[in-house]
Each structure stands twice: as C-alpha cells, then as structure tokens.
TrEMBL record, chain A:
ABC transporter domain sequence ranges: 4-252
Family annotation (SMART domains): AAA
Source organism per UniProt: Glycomyces lechevalierae
A GO biological process held by the record: peptide transport
CDD domains hit by this protein: ABC_NikE_OppD_transporters
NCBIfam families tied to this protein: oligo_HPY
Domain of life of the organism encoding this protein: Bacteria
GO CC terms of this entry: plasma membrane
Subcellular location: Cell membrane
Keyword annotations from UniProtKB, A to Z: ATP-binding, Cell membrane, Membrane, Nucleotide-binding, Transport
Name of the featured protein: ABC transporter ATP-binding protein
Xref: Gene3D superfamilies: P-loop containing nucleotide triphosphate hydrolases (3.40.50.300)
Keyword Oxidoreductase among record annotations: no
Biological classification of the source: Bacteria, Bacillati, Actinomycetota, Actinomycetes, Glycomycetales
Automatic annotation (TrEMBL), chain B:
UniProt family annotation: Belongs to the ABC transporter superfamily.
Keyword Transmembrane: no
Record's protein name: ABC transporter ATP-binding protein
GO molecular function annotation: ATP binding; ATP hydrolysis activity
Keywords, ordered alphabetically: ATP-binding, Nucleotide-binding, Transport
Domain ABC transporter intervals: 10-251
GO biological process annotation, one example: peptide transport
Length: 326, 338
C-alpha cells in the first residue's frame, strides 16, 4: 500500500542572490511497512524534502507538485487538518536531539505533550502512562521520565526523540540524519529499534542520511539525490554495492567496506563541490565532477530511466549500459 | 623509552578528574602508545572512552596524573616555554573547520598565526605559501586573501591543516578530522593525510569513532574502552580478525561488513552504554557488557574476568595484542601477539 507519494515536487527558495531551486521535480513513493532511504550531500535537497512533508518550509518557499499522504494532498490541506496530520499522520525525528528537546522540562512531560495536545479527552495521568510505555519501548527505563535532557547521554536523547515521534502512532516516520551523530554501537542500537518498529507496526519510514552504507543496511529501497533531483533509485543494497550513477558510486566509496582490499589506504571521494543552485551547469548537473562524462552530458539533462530490474538512473552513460566508475 | 627518533610516546599514562562527592573519574587509566613519523595510528572508541582526554594529554593541554608523555625521548614539561617548543613538533588539527577558523581572518593570517605565536619572522610569506601548497591549496598565493566563507568545506579543512603544517611538526594529532564533513570532502581530506605521511614522512594520531576511516588511512589501530586500550595492532589484523569481544562487536555492527557475514551470523549489538569513568568495574572492565560472559562462553575464565586486572598492552608496534582473559586462555599471552 502506498503511504506517501511525491509527484513532481518542486521547491524554490528566494534569497538575496535570486531564485534558488532546492527541489527540481522529485517523484518518490514510500510503502507502508517499508523503508526508503534518501542519500546525498549537504545542499542536495534531502532535508527540504523532509520539511515539505509536514509543510515546515519557510513562507518564502514556492512549492508546486503534490505530496500525497494516504491519498490526501498535504499541500492542499487546510491548517486545521494539517495540524491533525502532524504527529498522528506523520512525524519527524530530527538530527541533534540536544537542540530539539527543551532543556528545562522533564523528559516525561515532553513525551506526553503531543499526546495531550492531539488526543482530546486524554487525562494527564493517561498521557504519562503512555509516555512511560513509549520510553520502555525505545529501551529507556520508566525512571527516566523524571530526568532532564542534560542528564541523558546522546544515544538516550535520540531515543527520547524517537519515542516522541511515535507518541501519536503515526503512519509515517521521517528520520532526518537521526543517527549521524551517534557512536557506532549506539547507532546500531537505534537502527535496530527503528527497523523493529517498521516491521512490527507497519509504519512507513523515510530515512535521510549522507551515509549510503547505513542506508544500505537498514532500508529496502534507496534514492540518491543530487542538486535537487533524484539521480538513482533501486534496492538499497544494490545501489550501494553496484551503483548505476557515478555520483552514487562516489558517495558509496566515501564509506569503505572494512576488509575490502581496494579501499585499503585508498580513501574514496569526489573532488569539487555540489553546483551552485543559482547557476546550475548546462546539461547534466553532475558533469563538472564526473569522471565518465561523454559529450552529450554537456548538452542534455538526463531523465530517470530504467537501467535494470527495479533500477532507474539519470545518467546517459549508465543508460547506455556502460560502467559508471573508471 | 623508545629509541626511535622524533617519536611521540606515552607510558603508563593516567589522567584522573575529581568529581563532586569525592569520586574520581579515571578518564585515561593506563595507556602505552607510540606514534612515530611516517605512520598513521588510529585511536578508536565510543564517546566517553577517554580518547579525547588522551589526545589532549599527549598535546600537553591536560596534565597527566601518572605516567609520562615524551617526544624524541625527552619527557614533556609543562612550563610555557617547554610547551611552546613541544608544540612545534606535535601539532593539533581540530575538527569542524568552520569553528576553528576566524571568519574575519584571511587564509594568510589564519596560517601565519602559528608563526607569529612562535616568533618566527623570517620569510613568513614563503612559509605560509609552502604550508598551503603542502596542504594541497595550489597555487597558494591565490588563497592568501580569501576569507573562510569564500572556501568550500574541504578547502577550509585544508587551511586548518596548513595552519598545523606551517610549524613543520613531526607529528599531527587530529581529533575527528572528517566527522563534520560531507561524504565527498571526507575522501579529499583523508587522501591529504595519507599523502602527507607517504611523501613527507609526517606521523599522525587520528582520533575517531569511525572504523572505516582507520581502514582508509591508518597503519595501526588502538581500540580504547573505558580509559584503556583493549586491542591494538596492524589495521588489517585488528579489523578483519578482531579478537577482543568489544572490537568484534564494533566490527559486527558496521553496515555491510564482510567480517560480519563470514565470522558472525548476527550483528552483536551490545546493550547499554559505556559505564561512568568513576565506576570502572574491577577485573576486566568490559565484563558487564561482554557478550562472551553473557553467553557463558567465558565460563572457564570467569573467575579471572571478575577478579583479575588485565595488563596494560605494550607499545610494540607490529604485534596484535588483546587485553582479554578469554583470548589469553585460547591464544596464550596477549603480548606474544601475531
């Protein structure tokens, strides 16, 4: 069942330097009980995508296209309905739990707050009980209800954020770099928790990260974004292990597989910076950084086309069936 | 004392902090470590394991409670003058280049600052240009008058590294040098560190929580847990054939790790978090979280795990060493190694 669908989503910010296209036509779907990973560098538009779902973008942003949550267009929704959808329909776990939690309120109160606000008729005692159960589900003892954020470790705070995101039983959870700042072991704990919730409760999960290797181990499907567009999409482990776009290949190589002799003392990477959105290059926007570009890449902008079973890539070279790494 | 020239050495290093209530946090609790020119040593562990305290102590920013830090065989002294001389040889590279650079200073000023602090006045422009080009910013003159905001993330981190290189140190200590950088820039900076080692014989201690980084650039790796190094040795051995239960768990949870697929059927996700450094368990400090203890595999040596402290691992560069009673009962003395 399709839970979330982006149809030709475009977002343009207006800044002092003029119009800044952040998303340039994104089509994606998230199924219930499945996980979609979104990968890309800073500035590729992946966080704009997350914010657009809950309409958290600044007022100056021009948005066009459709975002369907369970068939209902979020962009056309009135404020009253949108308020109900936030938390209960879809919720976000942001990165940096340190800044997202209120430093002067106890954990219990913060987790119970969305329940009290969104579920009319809930008494504070009931909400507190629910909050306790939520904390236990994310592996925190109920005694943590009385703690302040500074008394918790980074991993524990991130768990509190996940508990809050689950407070109103949303159908869709968006995790924006939710584990990036965590240690390996804590990250593994949180990822295990998140994956468990997806299979147990059938929520749809959209997971945003710059680390393609993490996405490949957690997600069913992965989409790689570059300069406001999806440039490759497919089963997550295949996108990581056998990229069909030179940008995905570079992104994947940045995080080596331990034990891979080719990666030993050979840090992968990609020279240069993402293009300036105000002055995008002619043709393919990845061409200036691309090692396998051909003449056509400077003239036309490639569309997302099928390059294999369940695989699409916006790269002329891949579409010709040629290798995308030198 | 190591006989090697220009080597940064730590012997029996301990750093303790007093806490309210008379408790004592043993942040670094007995560490032997060598970093020689021409090698990259990775120091890996979770937040709170003491790796940053260890780095700060090696730089003389924190005083050791016990043990010694020495460079080139000379023990570190903490007078202002001695520290200044020491830091010409052992330089710090900070994480987060946006925080480390003053937005109102040009690249030239940022790099020349070290020279001015050390009173080196001869040929300042030449030295700055040389440091910038060694950090891969070429031609250097083009960057002299640029401000940090005009540079890319990778270029900014290169400026920070140039600021360390300008004093021509023998050893760099880099604390999470790529943690705040984008995936693509990460490779650029790691390649630079590797090139500085290979072409110019620089030594580096890279502190990180990222084992993939060690695989990309390091010669040796030391895994730290609660103030101690629990396993160390050549990167290939430690990461593809880890022997300490803690290292095995760390490697097993890495995404798409081949070691995971071959050696362990399931990722070993340790429960809980690092204990408080003021409450280090007696015997083996990893015991309360150890999967071998939990599964009963360690039963034959359990009396040692609970009651017998482990020796501090020695600094021998080429041997694979493990501080684990179970491993010792299986492989013999940890110090025999390889």
């Amino acid at each position: 069942m399709t839970l979330l669908e982006f149809k030709d989503l475009r977002v343009t910010y207006t800044g002092s330097r003029g119009r800044l296209p952040a998303l340039r036509g994104v089509d994606l779907t998230v199924e219930a009980g499945r996980t979609l990973g979104i990968a890309g560098e800073s500035g590729c538009g992946k966080s704009t995508l997350a914010m657009a779902v809950l309409r958290l973008l600044p007022k100056t942003a021009e948005v066009s296209g459709e975002i369907l949550l369970d068939g209902e267009d979020l962009l056309a929704m009135g404020w009253g309905r949108l308020r109900a959808v936030r938390w209960t329909g879809a919720s976000i776990v942001f990165q940096g739990a340190m800044h997202s939690l209120n430093a002067v309120h106890r954990i219990g109160r913060q987790v119970a707050e969305p329940i009290l606000v969104h579920e009319k008729g809930t008494t504070p005692a009931q909400a507190a009980k629910r909050a306790e159960a939520l904390l236990e589900r994310v592996g925190l003892p109920a005694s943590r209800m009385r703690s302040y954020p500074h008394e918790l470790s980074g991993g524990q705070r991130q768990r509190v954020m996940i508990a809050m995101a689950l407070a109103c039983d949303p159908q869709l959870v968006i995790a924006d770099e939710a584990t990036t700042a965590l240690d390996v072991m804590v990250q593994a704990q949180v990822l295990q928790l998140i994956s468990g919730l997806v299979t147990e409760r059938g929520v749809g999960l959209m997971m945003i990260s710059h680390d393609l290797s993490v996405l490949s181990s957690v997600c069913d499907e992965a989409a790689v974004m570059y300069a406001g567009r999806v440039v490759e999409r497919g089963p997550a482990h295949e996108v990581f292990a056998n990229a069909r776009h030179p940008y995905s290949a570079a992104l994947g190589a940045a995080f080596p597989v331990i034990g891979d002799p080719a990666a030993r003392k050979n840090p992968g990477g990609l020279a240069g910076d993402p293009p300036d959105p105000v002055r995008l290059p002619e043709g393919c926007s990845f061409r200036p950084r691309c090692a396998v570009a051909v003449e056509r890449c400077g003239e036309d902008s490639p569309e997302l086309l099928e390059v294999g079973p369940k695989r699409v890539s916006a790269c002329f070279v891949a579409q010709e069936g040629m290798p995308v790494v030198l | 004392m190591s006989s090697e020239e220009k080597t940064l050495t730590a012997r029996g290093l301990r750093v303790e902090f007093g806490l309210p209530g008379g408790r004592v946090a043993r942040a670094v609790d007995g560490v032997d470590l060598d970093v020689a020119p021409g090698e990259i040593v990775a120091l890996a562990g979770e937040s709170g394991c003491g790796k940053t305290t260890l780095a700060r102590t090696l730089l003389g920013l924190e005083k050791a409670t016990g043990g010694t830090v020495a460079f080139d065989g000379v023990p570190l002294r903490y007078s202002t003058r001695a520290l200044k001389a020491y830091r010409r040889q052992v330089q710090l590279v900070l994480q987060d280049p946006s925080g480390a650079l003053n937005p109102r200073h040009t690249v030239y000023d940022a790099v020349a600052e070290g020279l001015r602090i050390h009173g080196i006045t001869d040929d300042e422009p030449g030295r700055v240009a040389d440091a910038l080009s060694r950090a891969g910013l070429r031609p250097p003159e083009q960057f002299f008058l640029a401000y940090p905001h005009e540079l890319s993330g990778g270029q900014r981190q290169r400026v920070v590294i140039a600021g360390a290189l300008v004093l021509e140190p023998s050893i760099l200590v880099a604390d999470e040098p790529v943690a705040s950088l984008d995936a693509s820039v990460r490779g650029e900076i790691l390649s630079l560190l590797l090139r500085l080692k290979e072409e110019q014989g620089l030594g580096a201690l890279v502190i990180t929580h990222d084992l993939g980084l060690a695989w990309s650039i390091a010669d040796r790796i030391a895994i730290m847990y609660l103030g101690r190094i629990v396993e160390q040795g050549p990167v290939e051995q430690v990461l593809t054939a880890p022997r300490h239960p803690y290292t095995r768990a760390l490697v097993s949870v890495l995404p798409a790790s081949p070691v995971l697929r071959e050696a362990v059927a399931e990722p070993i996700v340790l429960a809980g978090e690092l204990p408080d450094a003021s409450k280090i368990p007696g015997g083996c400090r990893f015991r309360p979280r150890c999967q071998e203890v939990a599964s009963g595999n360690a039963l034959p040596v359990l009396h040692q795990c609970t009651g017998e402290d482990l020796k501090v691992l020695g600094p021998e560069a080429d041997s694979h060493q493990v501080a684990c009673h179970l491993d010792r009962s299986l492989h013999g003395d940890a110090r025999i190694g390889v």
